[in-house]
């Protein structure tokens, strides 16, 4: 096992990684911006280094500052968490070239799956179902119009280098495509430095299902079941559950087999997620993208499978066998995760501020992965996620009831919070029935 790790992230995911590192006897090193100096993850690390001002480009995304901190503290490895540098293949290569262990997949795998067009093409060749779409960037609007005629409307216009629900728009017809194409292209150039655009078939009613995979040190790729991620606002997830109430045992087997093929196609190592769209009308599923990192929603898989995924990341990166039997993975119960954000519960607009009261819920089956405590400031510089409220029950009905009680028992005062939205969601007949799709939040509004 590696002896020390620098956690190149902040907030709840930094605390999460530090917690497992310390349990395993790994020296945990935090890096932090000036704005985050008082957050719990800084105090909980064995060592902490300030790497710059609040602006993430000058701190958490500053590769030179992160590497300098690793050298200064003699860190043996770097764990990137999610976001920031987690899917930056160039940074991963630099980490390895500097003699450090990268707690993540091989940089070539990150590169292969980072471009949505390349990923689609590779998955199609590997036998993973892909939706109808373009197999190369559409050069201009006229090429886009011609391609859309062959795919059919409505159509999804996507930034090839995008991620996290950003750089996407739906065009209902040619006029809509002409309006959205330039917007997405310009957005992609500004945000990702790559204006490549692809077109894909759009499903008016669809469920977002993803499969957790783990590439082991011995070269095997295993799947740890699926997660339902259809509760979204602005194409970004706000609640997840596992297992999915929409997936039959036969579909689960097919999804997991496809996800393993996806991982094997790029010689995947460490934790990753294969995201798919499921058409509830036909039962068909299609590859969406692969996230070459640990996901925000990984805790629900941990609870259902009894596996510490961060520990398994450390073990795989250290060349060690997993702390579970890959041939005897057995799910149990049901888990739900609610992303507690500092945002308006109606319009979902950010609402940072000083936290005057922070009381986390407790009880059987309740877990809170939080990034803050009372007295901290939620600043406007980073994602609005304050905590993840995770509940586990013997079945879905019990998990929902425990989630209701936990939402009521989670008291936050100061910044805005979306807890009232979750109280509404957990009573929503569509959600409670399990028969919902990615449009559920819009219908609730």
UniProtKB/TrEMBL annotation:
SMART domains: Biotin_carb_C (SM00878). Residues 1-445 form the Biotin carboxylation domain. The keyword Lyase does not apply. InterPro entries: ATP-grasp, BC-like_N, Biotin_carboxylase_complex, Biotin_carboxylation_dom, Biotin_COase_C, CPAse_ATP-bd, PreATP-grasp_dom_sf, Rudment_hybrid_motif. Residues 120-318 form the ATP-grasp domain. Keywords: ATP-binding, Biotin, Ligase, Nucleotide-binding. It comes from the Bacteria. SUPFAM superfamilies: Glutathione synthetase ATP-binding domain-like (SSF56059), PreATP-grasp domain (SSF52440), Rudiment single hybrid motif (SSF51246). The keyword Nucleotide-binding applies. Its EC number is 6.3.4.14. This is biotin carboxylase. It comes from Pilimelia columellifera subsp. columellifera.
